[in-house]
């Protein structure tokens, strides 16, 4: 077998683009996809044919990862779809301001103050109560296609 | 309501209350109160007098209905306390009631009363003396033969019908008795009564025949006749077990399901064989029963035009059903006179039936003009029944004795007529012609499948062969026509489509049988039809729309596949007998029709490699058919294994040898075999990369065609030297091309490629696997070493890449065999640290984590038993760090999303991961069971038990009660838990309190699970725990120590000891909750050591239970039972087999004794 070239090398650099093309036929359930310019998580894929002897097409049902809206799309399975670059970063929570913004500590030691508290009731109370009790909280921020949202919370500190 | 109320006023008040309740239920006014009133009637002790009063006096039919239902419930409940006079009087009251009120309009009350009579009679069947039963039946017989008028006659017959259905195990009502009771009743009725009932029904029907035949319009006697016919039909449908031909079945245990048909004959339509013994001969055969039945139906047929009778009127329907049923009569009822009597019987039946189906064209025309098709369908069913019990020769000869044509000719005439019907190819509706076609196809299958088994030597009469030939021609013509007309239909994606595929598969295999019956004709026909279409495609390329031709080819290829080869179902399919035994005279291989047909398809398929031709001709769907055909064909014909040639079957040897030689030479090692294999690999390769996104096609190639090839070692050897295969392996290993395949298919392909190493030597195989996966491992190592991994890892293309590569690794790991084990081990070792790094990097991407964990589980599963102690240590350490890492990411994590769907999906993904981790632990456990290493692993200081406990310890906090709702996870968790507790109970003592409490909480949860298997596992775990503790403490050691004694938890709350807690909750479960009776012995095994450990607590719990009883009689019964539970049957305080067995008996007796009144209280 030849090993003259390393085809598998990753060509993209970090943060290069917001989306990435991928063949529709290879997108699986639980993957990500852009439908109507929104980043979605795929919750259902089914295939069908255009006419008996035509080509296959994929039917995607996705849920917008920020707004939770349900979106659908049909794409010929040999065509490319856009897959969003979904990034998740952990920050330590250092403050909650009264106007509904949080103050986060980045890995480099600076602070990030432009993120609002989540709208989800459950997560919101968890954050507020945990912070009030003085726990060390790590929040996970999900970002894709220029939008950001707090999506998870973890308590690492002592009680 | 009090027991046995006697004064009239009281009875009337009860009646009014019930009537009121019935009407308020009907008007839906306060229904729950009304229901309670009605229920209270049946729950009163001895409500019989009140019920009888209601039955006789109430004007409200519903009230009577509920009264008789109450009689049933109360009598079954109180059966053991009723005197035998009471019992008999209840039954005769019901019987008399039915007879006396036979003319009342409310049929449902009558039916209920007679079924209650039947149930009570069954309940007492084994205790009544023969004379007592006789007394009931004398009355019944009087009414059936018509002494008391038509209505009473019908009631009598209906009573027998309920009785027969009560006694038949499949239709009996539950009366709370063991199955043996039902079985004894069944045998008794079958041997002593069924024939008598049949003769009464005959007598009743005979008695009214003249009235029916003579009158021009419908007479009430017709109903008697209908009821009698139904009863006869019901009796013939009885599952007779004592007359079967071999006699062996009577001794088979009653719980076995007997299989009438062997798997090879795929009969779909219902056809129940009626196997009867010689004692039935006089009433069914020699009494002229058939002649009478046919004459009655014949007379009815003439009346169909007149008023009151029509083709589907009840009497006609039941007469026809009985006729069809009589066609399937077999067994020792016919003497062993060379089938003469049976043939005579069948000829007589057919002489009547033939009018229903002959001449076929006129009949189908009449049906199209609006006549009912039921008579014609019943005729087809009769043919099916006859075909099931006769050989093809006898089948064909039956009609010849009365007509100028044979039965097979009639069958094929019928079939061709139906195939020509315009309705046949309408997939939306199940039309009569489809039903008829399926029944007739089953008839053919029944005829031909028996012939297949008998080695096929001249099994069909020559007319039969030509009939099959012309029929096959028609079938193909009709299928092709259907294909071309449906080519433009765009009806896909529906659920119906899937159902019709499996239906079509069954149909095609019947077609295959017909084609094989006339193989000399059918194979050349298929060759001709195919080559015509190949030519059309080439001529019309680029100009005409090929869609119709493509669809025709699609269905022709499917038919060819079914004709030439059988489905292997994992085994190596042989060349079908019919093909082996025919064409013996053809010695030149390239003139052999099967070879010509195979070659023409191969040649056509090979053209798909040319991109230009592929684009213009080979649509994805056509390619699917091509690949499917190649997969099926290559399993049977390609490079046949050498040792097949010296088959031991001397019967077929001489004829098939010739054939085998021809085919071996042609598609064998020294003929065209290698070329064909090469072609197949090239076709697959081209198809894999040039149909992007065609998942179905790619799946067929990966999962069926290629997988089928590497399944055979001798083919692997040939693949090894093929350039085309090297190409495939090379581009899989080194190009990006195959990343366009779905990741799951890449896994399958990796598995196939690694499996192919079974054709190599040890050293070569290792090298080959290493080369195949070297880029994969290199990529993962490189990626995991990047500084900016965290941000690179989250890029979509990296995620896709990592997913694909992990799937490939998993595929390779799943193909681990002794020859490749070392290479796969090295493979895993080289990605060990990248896997850990990636689990860290993808901690938010559970889909990727799942793939990583799944690979590790698969890898460990394949490797563990082979590993030496040193290697095991490496592997175990790796697994532990993986578990720790995983758990540190997931404990205390709360994910949120606005979408509940997304939350559920995320949870489901987490549980899949968790399950994979449990599987990982389970495969670690297997090291203690099977171990091929040269020195024991303990030499390296590893104890598998300890390792797995540490693993469990890490994982259990993640297993929440919520997650145990996922059945698969739940199953795996409890399997692992019960295994661990059974095999290493001593390790439990070492767990810390928190982990221990958690494990015990899940065990408690499992005890109350509705899945029997899970409860059983938990009980086994409990038994292991308790018996360990008992044995240890007897020996003066600590046992479970603090866990058993109870302790204070971190909040200062005192927690009861584990043994006492489970003793309490198991007793609670056994006495007061619902569970399956199958669990009692497992529960006994767990309860015995628990009681032995905590005898004091057992006494205390027992006393509390006794104190709670209010009824002094119950108190003493309970006290005695509790005492007997631990003392009877010479129960000792050891934990040995005999003692466990004794305790099982004790517990069963205890539960029977006390559970009833304890639960009611």
Automatic annotation (TrEMBL), chain A:
Tell me, what does this protein do in biology?
Translation factor that promotes translation elongation and termination, particularly upon ribosome stalling at specific amino acid sequence contexts. Binds between the exit (E) and peptidyl (P) site of the ribosome and promotes rescue of stalled ribosome: specifically required for efficient translation of polyproline-containing peptides as well as other motifs that stall the ribosome. Acts as ribosome quality control (RQC) cofactor by joining the RQC complex to facilitate peptidyl transfer during CAT tailing step.
* Annotated GO MF terms: ribosome binding; RNA binding; translation elongation factor activity; translation initiation factor activity
Q: Which UniProt keywords apply?
A: Hypusine, Initiation factor, Protein biosynthesis
What are the residue boundaries of the Translation initiation factor 5A C-terminal domain, all occurrences included?
85-154
> Could you tell me which residues belong to the region Disordered?
1-21
Q: How is it modified after translation?
A: eIF-5A seems to be the only eukaryotic protein to have a hypusine residue which is a post-translational modification of a lysine by the addition of a butylamino group.
The record lists the membrane-crossing segments as none
Pfam annotation, one family: eIF-5a
Q: What NCBIfam families does its record include?
A: eIF_5A
Which GO terms fall under biological process for this protein?
positive regulation of translational elongation; positive regulation of translational termination
Output the InterPro entries linked to this UniProt entry.
IF5A-like, IF5A-like_N, IF5A_C, NA-bd_OB-fold, Rib_uL2_dom2, Trans_elong_IF5A_hypusine_site, Translation_prot_SH3-like_sf
Report the PROSITE patterns cross-referenced here.
Answer: IF5A_HYPUSINE
Could you say which protein family the record assigns here?
Belongs to the eIF-5A family.
Task: Please name the CDD domains in this protein's record.
Answer: S1_eIF5A
Provide the protein name: Eukaryotic translation initiation factor 5A
Record's compositionally biased regions (Basic and acidic residues): 1-12
> What's the source species for this entry?
Nepenthes gracilis
Automatic annotation (TrEMBL), chain B:
Q: Name one GO molecular function term.
A: nuclear export signal receptor activity
User: Where found?
Assistant: Cytoplasm; Nucleus
Supply the alphabetized keyword list: Cytoplasm, Nucleus, Protein transport, Transport
The biological processes this protein is annotated with in GO are: protein export from nucleus
GO CC entries:
cytoplasm; nuclear pore
What InterPro entries does the annotation carry? ARM-like, ARM-type_fold, XPO4/7-like
Q: Which domain of life is it from?
A: Eukaryota
Which family is this protein grouped under?
Belongs to the exportin family.
The name this protein carries in UniProt is: Exportin-4
Q: Which organism is it from?
A: Nepenthes gracilis (Slender pitcher plant)
């Amino acid at each position: 077998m030849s090993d003259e070239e390393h085809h598998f090398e990753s060509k993209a650099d970090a943060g290069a683009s917001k989306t990435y093309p991928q063949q529709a036929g290879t997108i699986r359930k639980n993957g990500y996809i852009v439908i109507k310019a929104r980043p979605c998580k795929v919750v259902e894929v089914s295939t069908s044919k255009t006419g008996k002897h035509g080509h296959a097409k994929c039917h995607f049902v996705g849920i917008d990862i920020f707004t939770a809206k349900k979106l659908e799309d049909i794409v010929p399975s040999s065509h490319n779809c856009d897959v969003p670059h979904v990034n998740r970063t952990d920050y330590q929570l250092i403050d909650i301001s009264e106007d509904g913004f949080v103050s986060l500590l980045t890995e480099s030691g600076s602070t990030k103050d432009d993120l609002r508290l989540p709208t989800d009731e459950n997560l919101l109370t968890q954050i507020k109560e945990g912070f009030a009790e003085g726990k060390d909280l790590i929040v996970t921020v999900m970002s894709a296609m220029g939008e950001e949202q707090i999506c998870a919370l973890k308590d690492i500190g002592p009680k | 309501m009090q027991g046995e109320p006697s004064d009239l006023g009281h009875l009337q008040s009860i009646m009014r209350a019930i009537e009121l309740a019935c009407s308020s239920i009907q008007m839906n006014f306060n229904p729950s109160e009304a229901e309670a009133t009605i229920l209270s009637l049946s729950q009163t002790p001895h409500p019989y007098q009140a019920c009888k009063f209601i039955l006789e006096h109430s004007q409200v039919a519903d009230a009577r209905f509920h009264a008789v239902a109450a009689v049933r419930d109360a009598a079954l409940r109180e059966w053991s306390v009723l005197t035998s006079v009471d019992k008999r009087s209840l039954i005769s009251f019901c019987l008399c009631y039915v007879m006396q009120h036979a003319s009342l309009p409310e049929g449902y009350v009558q039916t209920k009363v007679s079924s209650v009579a039947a149930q009570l009679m069954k309940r007492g069947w084994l205790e009544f003396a023969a004379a007592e039963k006789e007394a009931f039946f004398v009355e019944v017989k009087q009414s059936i033969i018509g002494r008391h008028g038509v209505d009473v006659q019908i009631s009598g017959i209906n009573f027998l019908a309920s009785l027969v259905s009560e006694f038949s195990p499949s239709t009996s009502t539950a009366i709370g008795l063991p199955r043996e009771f039902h079985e004894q009743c069944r045998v008794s009725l079958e041997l002593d009564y069924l024939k008598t009932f049949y003769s009464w029904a005959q007598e009743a029907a005979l008695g009214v025949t003249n009235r029916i035949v003579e009158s021009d319009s419908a007479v009430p006697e017709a109903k008697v006749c209908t009821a009698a016919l139904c009863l006869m039909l019901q009796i013939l449908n009885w599952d007779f077990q004592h007359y079967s031909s071999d006699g062996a079945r009577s001794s088979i245990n009653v719980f076995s399901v007997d299989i009438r048909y062997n798997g090879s004959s795929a009969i779909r339509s219902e056809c129940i064989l009626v196997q009867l013994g010689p004692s039935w001969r006089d009433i069914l055969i020699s009494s002229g029963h058939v002649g009478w039945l046919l004459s009655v139906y014949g007379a009815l047929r003439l009346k169909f035009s007149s008023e009151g009778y029509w083709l589907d009127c009840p009497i006609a329907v039941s007469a026809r059903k009985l006729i069809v049923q009589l066609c399937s009569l077999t067994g020792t009822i016919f003497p062993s006179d060379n089938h003469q009597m049976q043939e005579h019987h069948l000829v007589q039946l057919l002489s009547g039936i033939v009018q229903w189906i002959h001449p076929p064209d006129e009949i189908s025309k009449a049906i199209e003009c609006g006549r009912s098709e039921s008579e014609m369908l019943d005729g087809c069913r009769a043919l099916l029944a006859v075909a099931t019990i006769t050989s093809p020769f006898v089948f064909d000869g039956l009609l010849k004795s009365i007509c100028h044509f044979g039965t097979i000719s009639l069958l094929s005439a019928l079939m061709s007529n139906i195939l020509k019907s315009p309705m046949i190819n309408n997939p939306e509706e199940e039309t009569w012609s489809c039903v008829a076609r399926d029944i007739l196809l089953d008839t053919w299958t029944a005829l031909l499948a028996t012939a297949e088994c008998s080695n096929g030597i001249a099994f069909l009469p020559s007319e039969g062969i030509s009939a099959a030939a012309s029929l096959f021609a028609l079938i193909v013509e009709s299928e092709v026509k259907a294909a071309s007309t449906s080519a433009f239909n765009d009806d896909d994606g529906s659920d119906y489509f899937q159902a019709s595929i499996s239906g079509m598969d069954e149909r095609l295999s019947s077609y295959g049988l017909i084609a094989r019956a006339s193989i000399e004709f059918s194979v050349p026909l298929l060759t001709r039809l195919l080559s015509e279409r190949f030519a059309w495609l080439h001529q019309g390329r680029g100009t005409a729309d090929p869609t119709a031709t493509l669809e025709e080819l699609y269905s022709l290829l499917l038919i060819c596949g079914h004709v030439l080869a059988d489905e292997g179902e994992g085994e190596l399919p042989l060349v079908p007998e019919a093909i082996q035994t025919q064409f013996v005279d053809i010695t030149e291989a390239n003139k052999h029709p099967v070879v010509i047909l195979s070659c023409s398809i191969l040649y056509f398929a090979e053209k798909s490699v040319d991109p230009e031709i592929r684009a213009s001709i080979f649509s994805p769907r056509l390619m699917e058919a091509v690949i499917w055909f190649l997969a099926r064909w290559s399993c049977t014909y390609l490079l046949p294994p050498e040792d097949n040639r010296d088959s031991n079957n001397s019967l077929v040897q001489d004829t098939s040898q010739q054939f085998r030689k021809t085919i071996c030479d042609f598609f064998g090692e020294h003929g065209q075999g290698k070329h064909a294999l090469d072609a197949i690999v090239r076709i697959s390769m081209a198809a894999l990369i040039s149909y992007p996104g065609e998942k179905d096609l790619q799946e067929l190639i990966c999962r069926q065609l290629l997988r089928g090839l590497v399944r055979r070692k001798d083919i692997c050897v040939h693949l090894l030297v093929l350039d085309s295969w090297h190409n495939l392996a090379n581009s899989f290993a080194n190009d990006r091309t195959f990343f366009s395949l779905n990741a799951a298919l890449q896994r399958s392909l990796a598995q196939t490629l690694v499996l192919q190493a079974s054709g190599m030597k040890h050293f070569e195989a290792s090298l080959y696997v290493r080369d195949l996966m070297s880029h994969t491992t290199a990529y993962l190592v490189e990626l995991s070493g990047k500084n900016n991994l965290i941000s690179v890892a989250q890029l979509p293309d990296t995620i896709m890449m990592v997913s694909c590569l992990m799937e490939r690794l998993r595929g390779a790991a799943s193909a681990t065999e002794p020859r490749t084990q070392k290479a796969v081990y090295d493979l895993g070792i080289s990605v060990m640290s990248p896997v850990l790094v990636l689990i860290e990097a993808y901690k938010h991407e559970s889909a990727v984590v799942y793939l990583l964990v799944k690979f590790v589980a698969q890898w460990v599963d394949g490797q563990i038993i082979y590993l030496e102690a040193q290697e095991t240590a490496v592997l175990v350490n790796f697994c532990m760090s993986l578990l720790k890492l995983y758990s540190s990411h997931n404990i205390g994590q709360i994910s949120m999303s606005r979408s509940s769907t997304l939350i559920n999906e995320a949870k489901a993904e987490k549980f899949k991961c968790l399950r994979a981790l449990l599987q990982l632990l389970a495969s670690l456990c297997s090291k203690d069971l099977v171990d091929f290493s040269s020195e024991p692993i303990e030499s390296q200081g590893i104890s598998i038990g300890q390792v797995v406990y540490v693993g469990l310890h890490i994982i259990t906090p993640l297993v929440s009660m919520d997650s145990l709702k996922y059945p698969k996870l739940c199953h795996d968790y409890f399997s692992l838990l019960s295994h661990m507790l059974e095999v290493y109970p001593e390790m439990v003592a070492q767990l810390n309190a928190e982990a221990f409490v958690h494990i015990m909480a899940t065990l408690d949860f499992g005890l109350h699970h509705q899945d029997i298997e899970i409860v059983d596992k938990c009980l086994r775990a409990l038994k292991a725990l308790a018996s360990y503790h008992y044995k240890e403490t007897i020996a003066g050691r600590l046992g479970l120590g603090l866990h058993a004694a109870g302790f204070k938890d971190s909040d200062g709350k005192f927690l009861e000891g584990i043994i006492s807690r489970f003793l309490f909750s198991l007793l609670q479960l056994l006495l007061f909750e619902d569970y399956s009776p199958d669990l009692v012995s497992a529960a006994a095994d767990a309860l015995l050591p628990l009681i032995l450990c905590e005898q004091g607590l057992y006494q205390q719990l027992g006393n509390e239970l006794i104190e709670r009883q209010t009824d002094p009689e119950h108190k003493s019964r309970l006290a005695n039972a509790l005492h007997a539970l631990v003392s009877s049957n010479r129960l000792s305080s050891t934990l040995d087999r005999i003692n466990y067995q004794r305790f099982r008996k004790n517990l069963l007796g205890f539960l029977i004794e006390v559970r009833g009144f304890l639960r009611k209280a």
